[in-house]
Amino acid sequence: MTPILTIIPLLFLVVASIPWLLPHLRTNLRHLLRKPTPQSSQKPSRITSLRVYPIKSCRGFEIQKTKLHMTGLDLDRRWMLVDAESHVFLTIRQIPEMTRIRTGLSDDGEYLLLSVSPTKGGNKGDGGKEIRIPSHPDKSWLEKNTTLATDIEIWDTVTDGYVYNPEIGINQLFSTFLNRSVALVYKGPTPRVLKGNGDPRLLGRVQDTNFPDVHPVLIASEASIDELNGRLKSAGHEGISIERFRPNIIIKGEEGGAWVEDSWKTVRIRSSSSSSGDGKEGGGEGLTFDIVARCGRCQVPNVHPETAEKHRTQPWDTMMKYRRVDEGLKYKPCFGMLGAPRGEGDIRVGMRFEVLEETDRHRYIRGF
Ligand SMILES: *[C@@H]1O[C@H](CO)[C@@H](O)[C@H](O)[C@H]1NC(C)=O
Ligand SMILES: *[C@@H]1O[C@H](CO)[C@@H](O)[C@H](O)[C@H]1NC(C)=O
């Protein structure tokens, strides 16, 4: 190919991306001209809980220790449920009952345990039935027991996924429970590249994730849920558990330090003991995350994670009064921060959590 022929498509790409780039250009220029960000003065904290939700929108579980991958915590949102015909994803937003689908891990970590939690006053006959599937299915298992589909829809993207075959029994169990024909899907090999604030042009690298809405990891602080619960209780409502916000990493936070996470820009997790270490668990470098955006919330936190009962107003109404803190999310309250890890390694409860850099420039960009 002659050089000119190579340049034409390139030029076209540059020109085509101008309308998209313009709004960000100003912010980025300001960013570049600014003096280096000062080190954060926030005090180090500690990881108090790790949570994974293997099937998107279904009930997850706590874990003491796991692996952080570039795509998120091991097992987290590797699976999701889709409509059996259209292959469009299902979420707890439309189907609160999904939170009654339980996931767990066998003692040896080899199997994911799936079941449906019975209703309070008796059950519908499938209570107690448990199906096991490999937690890390290998190629040959997937070839035998699933069918790769390339038309899996999640938000406005289409990606691929391994659809579980009827013989596994899992689609039947969930379809009966949800009164509609559904199928379980395991993320396929094609990377689902981050969009919105995680877009390669903003993040500075190409990173992907499995089936969370947009970004690999959600970090939340106990100090903030405590503050929110204080408000709920003084208004005569019940307090809620942090599980309702479906975070992955929960930190304690300083006393009186509610909502300091709003300004996190770079954070790091390290083993608490150490000056030395095995390097993998962050004796030295630790695990660093770019905090890409605040997490705008819908009404999912109004759903009780155990019973699937949805509260008519809370915590939504309370949060709308004081947690609309992001210019890019005018009509949504924020809780928790979305991060993209810069590296991989072991992560466990008790590790030290440090804020390296802060910013006052977070602004949510729609990623779906
Ligand atoms: C799935 O595939 C494996 C082969 O890798 C096979 O042993 C197994 O019986 C298959 N079926 C189920 C229900 O797991
Ligand atoms: C399915 O139908 C049953 C019986 O009509 C009902 O009790 C249950 O709530 C329905 N489940 C869902 C998820 O809509």
From TrEMBL:
SUPFAM superfamilies: MOSC N-terminal domain-like, PK beta-barrel domain-like
Keywords, ordered alphabetically: Membrane, Transmembrane, Transmembrane helix
PROSITE patterns found in the cross-reference section: MOSC
Pfam families the UniProt entry points to: MOSC (PF03473), MOSC_N (PF03476)
Cross-referenced InterPro entries: MoCF_Sase_C, MOCOS_middle, Pyrv_Knase-like_insert_dom_sf
Residue ranges annotated for the MOSC domain, each copy included: 188-356
Transmembrane portions of the chain: 6-25
Name of the protein in question: MOSC domain-containing protein
Lineage of the organism: Eukaryota, Fungi, Dikarya, Ascomycota, Pezizomycotina
